[in-house]
Structures are given as C-alpha cells and as structure tokens.
Design a protein that fits this description.
The chain is α/β, with parallel strands linked by helices and 310 residues long. The chain is built from 16 helices and 12 strands. The strands form 3 sheets. Strands 2-1-3-4 form a 4-stranded parallel β-sheet, with helices on both faces. Strands 6-5-7-8 form a 4-stranded parallel β-sheet, with helices on both faces. A 4-stranded parallel β-sheet has the order 10-9-11-12, sandwiched between helices. It is globular.
Length: 310
C-alpha cells in the first residue's frame, strides 16, 4: 500500500513524464483515489470516450479496463494509447463472443444490435451501435428496428427496456457485471436502516429489484449530476466504491455512504500509481487494434457519439 510520501513522489514523477511526452491521463470513476488524483480527466465511459476523441495530446494513458482503452484507440487511431495493466479486463465484456452475436442475428434477422461499450472491439465490430450506461435508453430508442438485440448486460437491458417501446432481447441471456449483480436486497435494506434520511442512487448494472427501490438510477457521470441537483444531503451509493471517493471530492458538504460490504471491481483496482509510472517510462502497454476493427467498430462507436449529441 502506498503511503502519502510515496504517493507524492510517484505523482511528481508521473507529472514530469506526462509533460515530457505530451501525454494525457484519463481515469475512470472506479479507479483508486490516488490514480483519480493524478489524472487530467476523471469520468464515466462516455465522457472518457469523448475526451479521447478530442485530445491534442500525443499519448493517452488510459486508467480503466481494457475495452475502454480499446475504445480510446478506436475513436482516435492516430494516438498512442497505453494501458498500465494489460490484464485489467472486465469480466462482463468477456461474457459476450462474436459467435453469440452472429447466432442471435440469425434468430432475429430484422433486429439491430446495440452493444454496451463494456464489450470487446471484435464484438463492437459486429454491432449497429454502441451505448454506455449514460445513454442506453436513448440509443435503443433511436434504432430503426422494433426488436433490439442488446448485450452483454441483462440489468442495463432491463433499464433500457423499461424506458422504450422496443422489444429488447439480451445477448447472452445471463450477462452481468459481477461487481454490481452481487448486490443484494439485504445489503440495501441494511444501508437504508443505517441511513434513513439518505437517498439511494444506484447504477443500472444492479439487479432490477434494486433498481425499483432506488431514488435515482444513474451512470457514474449521471450520479454526479444527480447528487449536485438533489436537495438531499446524504446518499447511499450503489456502485463501485471508487465513485464514493469521486463524489466526496466533488461535494465536500454532502455525505456519501458505501454499501457494506463495499462494491469492488478487482480489474479496475489493479491499476496502481507504480503501474502508471512504468507505463509512461516504458511506453507500455500499447493498445493495438487491427485496421478492420478500427473501421467496423469505429462506425458503431461514431454512431453512438452522433446519436448522443457529440
Ligand atoms: S464494474 Fe463491472 S462492468 Fe465495470 S469494469 Fe468492473 S466488472 Fe466490468
């Protein structure tokens, strides 16, 4: 575990190399506090994709999981994109294969395919459009077909289905985020009994039964807006615990509570400051995407950015 002096020293070295190399550090809201603090920009998947598309920096150091770094490369292929830990892979993204999509297309030949950004670039290359948790209902609604094949998160599919007139079919049937899906009603009821005045704000990756109990269902970017605009002073946060750090940093006058046990995403937490520094020092690990995937997955991501107002 890094102590304060060590964190300061590592952050100073990262800062120097970042300037020398004209690099930008992008970090997801679930990253460790010290990684969030050293980043140039912290945000959700959609915000980070936009930042990656617009940056003037020559190098993007992406502190998140692999599919996010791949997305950064696809939206800005001329940049060098580095991920400090090559093994930081989202288990939900690994639940969906290109074969699953091809098979489902055979069963629903008139349907369009919307994939959550939490999927591999090979899968995105087979999609009609990509979405994030910030825009899933908006993207599903915008599709031309009445039935939409949606993967890989069944809970986000439920959230989108409830907000559109489309028939949403989940591919693969049981896809889920282990970090969010393990959250139980008992965890929620216990948190509510400990903090009876707090609003419950959850991520759409949680189980539908918990979504129904929540005051707000938001992407991590949406949680910032929700907690800013809500007149409440206290919030129980139903997503990965890194978000609680982000909220406390943004709104020091309000109170934010973890659930118990805290929700942790191991691959997100595998990135440390030492790895960020090694990444800048050793130019590693560079994310590479084939020309075909750049072209085909790029179309699906660009369509999302257009439909969601970018
Ligand atoms: S929180 Fe869930 S969906 Fe997000 S990266 Fe971790 S495992 Fe994947």
């Amino acid at each position: 575990m890094n102590n304060v002096a060590n964190i300061r020293e590592l952050s100073g070295e990262i800062d120097e190399l970042r300037r020398e190399q004209n690099a930008v550090i992008l970090a997801h809201n679930y990253q460790r506090p010290e990684v969030q603090d050293v980043a140039d920009f912290v945000g959700d998947s959609l915000e980070l994709a936009r930042q990656a598309a617009e940056t003037d920096a020559e190098v993007i150091v992406f502190c998140g999981v692999y599919f996010m770094a791949e997305t950064a490369k696809i939206v800005n292929p001329r940049k060098r994109v580095l991920i400090p830990d090559l093994l930081a892979r989202c288990p939900m993204a690994l639940m969906l294969s290109p074969e699953d999509i091809l098979e489902s297309r055979k069963s629903y030949p008139d349907s369009e395919v919307v994939l959550y950004v939490n999927s591999s670039s090979e899968c995105k290359a087979l999609a009609d459009c990509v979405c994030t948790s910030a825009n899933a209902p908006q993207i599903v609604k915008a599709m031309d077909s009445d039935t939409v094949l949606f993967g890989p998160d069944r809970n986000l599919a439920y959230y989108a289905q409830k907000r559109t007139d489309k028939d949403v079919v989940v591919v693969p049937e049981g896809g889920n985020c282990p970090t969010h899906h393990q959250l139980s009603l008992v965890d929620i009821l216990m948190a509510k009994s400990r903090h009876p005045d707090a609003e419950l704000v959850v991520h759409p990756e949680v189980d539908p039964g918990i979504q129904e109990l929540a005051d707000g269902i938001e992407s991590t970017g949406g949680m910032l807006r929700y907690c800013r605009e809500s007149p409440a002073d206290e919030f129980i946060i139903g997503t990965e615990e890194g978000m609680v750090y982000r909220l406390k940093r943004e709104f020091p006058g309000k109170r934010f509570y973890h659930l118990s046990p805290p929700m942790l995403c191991p691959p997100m937490k595998s990135l440390t400051l030492d790895k960020v520094l090694d990444s800048l020092r050793g130019d590693r690990f560079e994310v590479r995407v084939s020309e075909r995937i750049l072209r085909e997955a790029g179309k699906a991501i660009d369509r999302m950015l257009e439909l969601s107002g970018n």
